[in-house]
């Protein structure tokens, strides 16, 4: 809950604009980013480049020249008005990931005075689409009371997709918190001295996957119109999302896969920007027929397919029903029959969600009933269907997937050219939870 509150809070407060400084930095390390708080916004006691908290919170955030670890200033967060019910406030800076490396370490000095709750220092890493890749903090230590200057350290992995590093000191409750001499190390080298990436882009422009009109197209199928987006060049790779999802859920994959493949990402009928004028039950056989029509309209006679959850079910049906269209198939979290694939409690949970949605009169809820009903009634892929599949198939799932591991293994065991891979500690959402590992596994399979 706390992490959710922090994440929501920082989204409302943007970085303070860089402007003329009051003095030159005295510290050699990290001078570019003002991690020693030596640069001030002209005419103020505010640190350049750092956010300065929440207006009206009852806290004050500014530099302090009387108490510091070294140099001229330290950052001070103080609870100044105990009548205001806000229980915490924070400062924040966002650093670009310009440098090459795999390991990130954040070192910093803290001093406390009469802190009745605790202090924290969070750090997280995001990609250029603002997706969180890594997160860590000090909260488990419950640092409070009165303490002299002491150095602390946080360690994170630095994935190749990393674009931004967030530093987030925070004071909970009353008292005073000083922060000074923050240092960011990449593979043990200070960020000011680390090797710059050859392909570093100082102004990345995130692509609006699922809403990118420049890449968009539409195809009419039976009683529906499919919305799709195309990226890259090379062999075609069709991406099929899960129930109640859309193209955007594959944003971490499209960016990487489109470097070597022609990626066709599609919204399944009635989901995302695709329409559906039918009124009968939905089925994965219907979805498979839709995809065949889409491929025919794009003059694609053979494609690779990556299917997640519902998309994996559709991919299996396509490989069995339209084998000439499928070169290779990668699936994650797929099933052949819901009564065999998931626990009874999961089916009951879906049933309760359906009953709740039935009480709502809006069109979206009515369609959601159809989507969730399909989860309880579909698919009906037989063992014989699996044995008909002749294309190479990569069968994947998370170790903690809602799809039972024995069922995932059953699918792999009945496909003649299958590979099985279970992602340790991952859930049904492994394409988002383990981006690098998932993408590498799929590309390794497709590229062979």
Q: Separation of termini?
A: 44 Å
Helix content: 10-25%
What assembly state would you assign to the polypeptide chains in this entry? Answer: single chain
Give the full name of the CATH homologous superfamily of the largest domain.
Answer: Alpha/Beta hydrolase fold, catalytic domain
Compute the number of structural domains.
2
Structural account:
The protein has helices at residues 2-11, 251-257, 284-297, 310-321, 338-341, 344-357, 363-377, 383-388, 405-413, 430-433, 435-447; strands spanning 59-64, 74-79, 88-90, 93-96, 103-127, 132-136, 143-157, 162-172, 176-186, 189-190, 216-221, 224-231, 235-240, 261-267, 275-276, 303-308, 326-332, 393-398, 418-423. It is of the alpha+beta class and 448 residues long. It has 2 domains: 2-190, Sandwich (Jelly Rolls); 213-447, Alpha/Beta hydrolase fold, catalytic domain (Rossmann fold, 3-Layer(aba) Sandwich), CATH 3.40.50.1820. The two termini are 44 Å apart.
Features:
448 residues, alpha+beta, Jelly Rolls, Rossmann fold, 10-stranded antiparallel sheet, 9-stranded mixed sheet, disordered N terminus
Per-chain topology:
Elements: H1 2-11, E1 59-64, E2 74-79, E3 88-90, E4 93-96, E5 103-127, E6 132-136, E7 143-157, E8 162-172, E9 176-186, E10 189-190, E11 216-221, E12 224-231, E13 235-240, H2 251-257, E14 261-267, E15 275-276, H3 284-297, E16 303-308, H4 310-321, E17 326-332, H5 338-341, H6 344-357, H7 363-377, H8 383-388, E18 393-398, H9 405-413, E19 418-423, H10 430-433, H11 435-447
Parallel strand pairs: 13-14, 13-16, 16-17, 17-18, 18-19
Antiparallel strand pairs: 1-2, 2-9, 3-8, 4-8, 5-6, 5-7, 5-8, 5-9, 9-10, 11-12, 12-14, 12-15
Helix pairs in contact: 3-4, 6-7
Signal peptide: 1-22
Domain AB hydrolase-1: 236-340
Protein name: Alpha/beta hydrolase
């Amino acid at each position: 809950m706390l992490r959710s509150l922090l994440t929501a809070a920082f989204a409302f407060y943007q970085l303070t604009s860089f402007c003329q400084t009051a003095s030159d930095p005295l510290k050699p390390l990290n001078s570019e980013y003002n991690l020693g708080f030596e640069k001030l916004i002209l005419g103020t006691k505010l640190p350049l480049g750092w956010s300065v908290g929440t207006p009206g919170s009852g806290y004050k955030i500014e530099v302090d020249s009387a108490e510091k670890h070294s140099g001229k200033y330290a950052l001070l967060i103080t609870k100044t008005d105990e009548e205001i019910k806000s229980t915490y406030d924070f400062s924040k800076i966002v650093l670009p990931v310009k440098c090459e490396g795999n390991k990130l370490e954040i070192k910093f000095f803290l001093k406390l005075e009469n802190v009745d709750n605790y202090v924290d220092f969070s750090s997280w890493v995001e990609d250029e689409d603002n997706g969180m890749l890594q997160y860590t903090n000090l909260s488990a230590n419950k640092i409070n009371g009165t303490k002299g200057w002491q150095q602390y350290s946080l360690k994170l992995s630095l994935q190749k997709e990393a674009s931004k590093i967030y530093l987030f000191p925070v004071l909970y409750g009353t008292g005073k918190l000083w922060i000074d001499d923050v240092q960011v190390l990449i593979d043990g080298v200070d960020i000011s001295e680390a090797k710059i990436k050859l392909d570093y882009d100082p102004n990345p422009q995130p692509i609006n996957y699922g809403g990118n009109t420049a890449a968009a197209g539409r195809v009419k199928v039976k009683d529906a119109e499919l919305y799709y987006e195309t990226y890259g060049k090379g062999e075609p790779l069709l991406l099929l999302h899960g129930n109640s999802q859309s193209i955007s859920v594959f944003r971490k994959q499209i960016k990487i896969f489109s470097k070597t493949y022609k990626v066709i990402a599609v919204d399944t009928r009635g989901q995302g920007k695709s329409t559906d004028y039918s009124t009968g039950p939905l089925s994965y056989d219907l979805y498979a027929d839709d995809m065949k029509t889409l491929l025919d309209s794009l003059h694609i006679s053979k494609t690779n397919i990556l299917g997640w959850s519902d998309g994996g079910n559709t991919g299996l049906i396509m490989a069995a029903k339209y084998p000439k269209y499928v070169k290779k198939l990668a699936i994650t979290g797929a099933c052949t029959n819901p009564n065999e694939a998931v626990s009874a409690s999961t089916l009951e949970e879906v049933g309760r969600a359906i009953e709740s949605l039935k009480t709502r009169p809006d069109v979206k809820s009515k369609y959601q009933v159809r989507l969730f009903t399909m989860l309880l009634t579909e698919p009906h892929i037989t063992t014989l269907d699996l044995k008909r599949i002749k294309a190479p198939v990569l069968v994947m799932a998370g170790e903690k997937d809602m799809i039972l591991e024995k069922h995932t293994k059953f699918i792999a065991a009945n496909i003649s050219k299958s590979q099985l891979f279970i992602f340790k500690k991952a859930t049904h959402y492994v394409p988002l939870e383990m981006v690098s590992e998932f993408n590498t596994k799929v590309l390794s399979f497709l590229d062979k």
